[in-house]
């Protein structure tokens, strides 16, 4: 690793939740938009300074105006002019959340991809089915798909052995920047970041840990060894942020958490050690504040906290 990790000061606690299950979050002006997994409404808006609840929205259900598991667009901050863009699975269209907490339709979407990114020309992400690709680019006008193959390649003997789970084992979190012609992937189960252009050509691969050999990484994973991976990412105009986690190879529980700050060319700028284990997505605002979700047991109840770190 070229950049020595620096430990962040302990976080401020913005919100504590006892009944809701916060899964991910994004920031919009002074608002923190939190996706709720266990609530009658899908989204809760909090003041990012005081932590005060501002509004709940998105009645959960299957009706024509209801929402179902909204997904934040990974490159929202690059394409939505300071607003939060998300896709609703029930209504099958994109929405824009404005800084005044108003919600507006943006457009229908011809296809839904996991780890969703939206550009003027493409939808970028990974298949939610069984497509054996690393990631996909779908032309928004024509529907034409560009499928980028799994990379790096394994020996044929291992590919054959694990052919039914390869797509799962190559899972990644995707973010893109159309202006800089870059697509960045953080591999979920491997200590690897990959940088592509919009032609689907790999420009760079980065490994932060001591183990550089992909075949040995793969072997560690299949033998239930502890592994580093990137379970969530966040994109801004100038930087990519990736949550790097050391996970228990048998339980998949997180043992150590870091945030990697990288430019769009693949240069590592900073690595931050966190004293809390995030449980879902995270986001970074224009002032350099990092927001994430953690959980714990208080008495007999599971409690979730929204934390705020100040990046140097």
Structure description:
The longest helix is centred in the C-terminal third of the chain and has 9 residues, at 214-222. Helices cover 7% and strands 49% of the residues. With 312 residues, it is mainly β. The protein has a single domain (6-310), classed as TolB, C-terminal domain (Neuraminidase, 6 Propeller).
Beta-strand residue fraction: over 45%
Mean pLDDT: 92
- Based on secondary structure, the structural category is mainly beta
- Can you identify the CATH class? Mainly Beta
Shape: globular
Q: Please identify, by name, the CATH architecture.
A: 6 Propeller
Number of strands: 25
What is the helix content?
A: under 10%
Could you give me the name of the CATH homologous superfamily?
TolB, C-terminal domain
Q: What's the alpha carbon Rg, rounded to whole Å?
A: 19 Å
| Count of discrete domains | 1
Specify the biggest β-sheet.
Answer: 5 strands, mixed
* Count of alpha/pi helices: 4
Order of helices and strands: EEEEEEEHEEEEEEEHHEEEEHEEEEEEE
Task: Give the terminus-to-terminus CA distance.
Answer: 20 Å
**Biggest sheet, strands in spatial order?**
1-22-21-20-19
Q: Which stretches are low in confidence, meaning pLDDT under 50 for 5 or more residues running?
A: none
Q: CATH topology, what is it called?
A: Neuraminidase
In short:
The model has no long low-confidence stretch (mean pLDDT 92). The chain has a single domain, classed as Neuraminidase, CATH 2.120.10.30. It has 4 helices and 25 strands.
List the helices and strands and how they pair.
Elements lengths: L5 E2 L4 E6 L4 E7 L2 E6 L4 E7 L5 E7 L11 E2 L3 H4 L4 E5 L4 E5 L5 E6 L5 E5 L3 E5 L6 E7 L5 E5 L6 H6 L4 H4 L2 E6 L4 E6 L5 E4 L5 E5 L7 H9 L4 E9 L3 E9 L6 E10 L4 E6 L8 E3 L4 E10 L2 E10 L2
């Amino acid at each position: 690793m070229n950049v020595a990790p620096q430990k962040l000061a302990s976080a401020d606690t913005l919100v504590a939740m006892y009944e809701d299950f916060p899964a991910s979050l994004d920031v919009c002006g002074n608002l923190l938009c939190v996706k709720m997994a266990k609530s009658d409404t899908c989204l809760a808006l909090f003041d990012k300074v005081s932590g005060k609840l501002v509004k709940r929205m998105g009645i959960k259900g299957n009706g024509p105006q209801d929402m179902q598991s909204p997904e934040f667009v990974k490159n929202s901050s690059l394409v939505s002019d300071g607003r939060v863009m998300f896709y609703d699975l029930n209504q099958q269209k994109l929405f824009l959340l404005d800084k005044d907490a108003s919600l507006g339709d943006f457009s229908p979407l011809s296809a839904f991809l996991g780890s969703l990114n939206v550009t003027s020309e493409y939808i970028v992400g990974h298949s939610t089915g069984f497509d054996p690709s690393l990631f996909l680019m779908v032309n928004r006008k024509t529907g034409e798909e560009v499928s980028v193959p799994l990379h790096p390649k394994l020996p044929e003997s291992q590919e054959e052995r694990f052919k039914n789970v390869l797509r799962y084992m190559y899972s990644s979190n995707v973010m893109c920047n159309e202006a800089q012609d870059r697509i960045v992937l953080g591999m979920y189960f491997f200590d690897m970041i990959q940088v592509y252009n919009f032609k689907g050509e790999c420009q760079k691969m980065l490994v932060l840990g001591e183990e550089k050999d992909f075949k040995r990484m793969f072997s560690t994973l299949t033998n239930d060894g502890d592994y580093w991976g990137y379970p969530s990412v966040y994109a801004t105009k100038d930087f990519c942020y990736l949550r790097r986690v050391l996970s228990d190879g048998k339980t998949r529980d997180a043992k150590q958490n870091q945030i990697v700050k990288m430019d769009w060319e693949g240069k590592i700028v900073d690595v931050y050690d966190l004293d809390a284990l995030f449980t879902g997505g995270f986001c970074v605002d224009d002032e350099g504040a990092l927001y994430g979700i953690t959980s714990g047991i208080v008495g007999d109840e599971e409690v979730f906290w929204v934390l705020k770190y100040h990046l140097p």
